[in-house]
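Re: duplicated header lines in exported C-alpha cells

Our pipeline writes sequence and C-alpha cells for each protein into one text file. With two proteins the header for the second block appears twice in some exports. Here is an export where it did not happen, for reference. First protein block:
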Amino acid sequence: MKTIRKSILVLFALSIALSRVMAIDCLSLEEAGKRGLVKLVIKSKGGCTGQVIEMKIKNLGHQLLNLKLEAGRRLDSKNDSQQDILVTKSEEFAVSNNEDKTLHVYGMCCQAHNSGPTNNSEYSIGRMADSNLVKLAEFIDKNKYFSSCASQHAIWAISDGNSIGGISGDNKYESDKLKKYVSKLTGRPIPKYNVDYAIEGSDETMGRARKIEGTFEYTLPANAHVSLAIYDSTGTLVQTLFKEEAHQSGDYKLYYTFRTAHLDQGTYYARLKMDGMTQKEMKIEF
C-alpha cells in the first residue's frame, strides 16, 4: 500500500514538472493569438478611464500558457467612431490547457476627438502604441495612476497633441508630476494657463477645448488707457477682455477666461495695447 502511495506521489510530481517543462515561455497576447494558441474576445465596459475593458481568453492548446498584456498596448476599436484604448496596467498570468480566463483591464482612451466607447463595443488586441505613449503608460503603471483624470488628459496631450495645460485633476501633486513627465517626453514647455477639455458630448465636441484660464501680468510705466484682447494667428480679433480702460501706472495681474469652444485648435495671442500699439504679447496654444 505504501509503495502504491509513493508511486502515485512520484507520478504526480513528475506530471507537475512535465507541465512546467512543456509550458510555453511568456508570450504577449498578440503573439499567442497569431500562433492560434488562444481565442480572444475583447469588449468595452463603457467609459474612458479605469477598468474599462473585459478580455476573455481561451487556451486552445494542450499545454500551460504563460501570457502577458503590456502597459502601452493600444487596443483597436472595431467601431471607427469610438476611441481606441491604451492599456495602463501590465498583467502576467498563466492559462491552463482548455481553460477560460477573464481579465478586467485598466486602460484609457487615446483618440480625444472620437466618441467614448459604449458598453459591449468590440476591440481587437491591436499593437503596441508609439514610443511616447508606451513610456507614459509605463509611468502610469509604475505610479498606479490607473483611475486618474489627470493621466487621461496626459494621454490625450500625447495622442492628440492637446495642451499640457489640460493635464489636471483633483490631486495637484499628481497633475504636476504628469505635466513635468509629458513635458520631458515631448520637449514642449508647461504653459502658464489651464485648458478645460470636453471629455463627454457629441462627436463634434469631444476633445475640444472649452475654455482656458490663466493670468496675464503687465506693468504700466505711466497712467494710460489700455486694451487687452485675444487674436488668432491671422490677427483676427476673437475675444475682448477689456477695451480702453483707464489704468494708473503700476504692476497688474489679470485673471482671465478665454472661451474657446467654437474656435479651431491652434495658436492664439493675448495682446495688451496702449494707443493702438502692442505693449505685451502672450502666446496661447490648444
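Second protein block, exported in the same file:
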Amino acid sequence: MTSKLVRVTTGDGHPMDAFVSAAGTGSAPGVVILHEIFGVTDFIRSRLPFFNDRGYTAMAVDLYHRVAPGRSFGYADQGFTDAFNTRNRLNDDQSVDDVGHAIEALRRLPECDGDVAVVGYCLGGLYAYLGARRWNAAACIAFHGVRIEKRLAEAAAIRVPLQMHFCGLDRHVPASAVSAIKAAVAGQRDTTVYEYPTVDHGFTRIGQPVFNAGEADRAHGRMFALLDRVLRGAT
C-alpha cells in the first residue's frame, strides 16, 4: 500500500503535511497517528499499513510543520538531543489545535467514512490525552505519553473514550507520574490506564532494541478492541 501526501490547513492558515494511506477501495473509519519526538520516522510510516491491514484509513501528521517541517531524527546520541530540542520549540496547545484540523481534514477525504480516532506515541501520546478533552474524535489512545502529569487539570474534562499505555521501565514517565495520572483520571467514564511492568519507552517500535513483541501484541489487542468498538460498533 502506498501513501499520498495531503496538505492540511491549520486554523491560522499554516500548512501541515500529512501522509494518508487507504484501507482499500471505498471509505473506511480513520485513524490519525501522532508521532514521537523523533518525527515522522520509518516506524511512524509503518503504522499506516499496520492500521490499513485492520481495515482503517490512516493519516500520519507532521507535528513539526511549524518548527522543523519534514524533519525526523535518530533515537540515540545527537539524534535524540536534536529531537528533544525540536520538541521543546513546540507550543503544545497550538499543536493540539493543529491536530484538530487534521482530524477534520481526514474526515472529509473520500477514503474516510467520517469516523476518526487518534493514536499517539510519546509526544503524540501527550496530545492524544489533551485531545480527549478538545477534539471531536471517536476515541484517543496514548502510548507512553510524556509530560501528561504536568497537565492533570485537563483530566476532569475528558469527554471521549481514552486509553493510555505506560511502561514500567520508562525513565521518561516514572512510576510517580503514572500514579498521579491514574489518580487524576479515576472515575472518568471510559478512561483506562494499562501498565506493562517489564517494558521500556517505545516498546511497540518494531525493529528497535526496546521492542517487546508479546507486550506490543497485548497492547495492540486492547487498542483495536477500543477502535473496533467506537469506529465499527463492535461489542
